[in-house]
Amino acid sequence: MKKVKDKQIFHILYIILTIFVIFDTTRSMIIMPKVLFIITSLIKEALGVSIFAFILLKRKMKTNKKILIYQMILIYFIVISSFFSLFNKIDLKDNFVAMYNYVLLPIYVYIYWHYDYMTNQKYIILYKIYIYGNLLLFLFSFVAYIFKFPFFYYSYANRISIGNPSVTSFSYLICFFSFIYYEDIFNYSKYVRLIIKLLFLIAILLTISSTAIFSLGFISFILIFLKHRNKIIKSYKKLILFFILLGIGITYFYNKEILGIFDYFMLRLDDLIRLIKIKLKIEKTYLLTKSYSIRENQFSNLLIGIKRSGLIYYIFGLGGANYLNYTKYLENQYYAMLGNYGVVGLFLYIFLLIRNFKFYVYAKNRDNIVLIILTLLMIFYSITLEVMTLYSVVGSYALFFSISRKGVLSNENSN
Asked: Using alpha carbons only, what angle is made at residue 77 by residues 76 and 82, rounded to the nearest 5 degrees?
């Protein structure tokens, strides 16, 4: 009886944790006393650490081959941060914060991987909470921006998101693509399912995140190719012939002012797009160059830090030392990993992501496709964000990695 009650308690704790994962980025946009923000942050962190500790105790520190790489990264981060903090005499508090930001990913993968073990519940419950929660977040954000609710900061111009739009777009993309493959677990008509997919698609576009829009287009292209790859492969000769004729045609008609007409059309189209952007007050032409310049300076500072540190730090990283001096505001996970945990840490992170692709080779089912989508999103978002320090991204990845790697939604739905 006590075991049943314990599992029910853990089930409630997992639900609360997932709600934090969904809405965490929203907390920073709510106008609230600083004390309340700190309290909710402490509750969130304490909840995750507590569940992690209980799992370790119940599992008696047992390892699992399927998530061994995450356990290796966790140990590596802790050892490197601890070792170099002693040698560099860094403030322990600052070093702990730097280290904790990076161990979140392996910790949360471990937490969500053991959800069914700790609760005797099906992952379908958490999945539905995640989908409904993000749908609610988008609808509320949309209404809040229209009516300008007085309880929120609107720090992202007209990017429709109560929270960092780059972070919420990551969640919306996972919802959109996973819903395409798991929509049969929802007992809705095909029209309602279509509406849900359209809402998530609109949500992605309204964040006006270049990373999100690129990811949406690239992954959609990959999925279409995989679905129709046999037809495309059979028609490759026709495709090659088409591009050859297109090239010849462009070359031949170059002096016939065809390209002049094309350029004129594209110019008018560009004017139309700019006009629409101005009308919607989202014309921010300086942002791209400004963003690129900022990232370039961040990377230059990182290289300076690595050169000053020496070879051993280049191999193993500086842990908290580099985080505080050179990578605290570095918006690129690969560069940040190189600075914080060296070539070894960067290799482990890349290996962690790339190894997910092998599962598509072995079993071409929907779970493996969702895993590939999730991995591609992490790869793309790691270029423009330090994803391992973003709670919502880490939690979302951990949940969907566990769902897709275990194939639990397909199994649960078939029972």
From this structure: 100
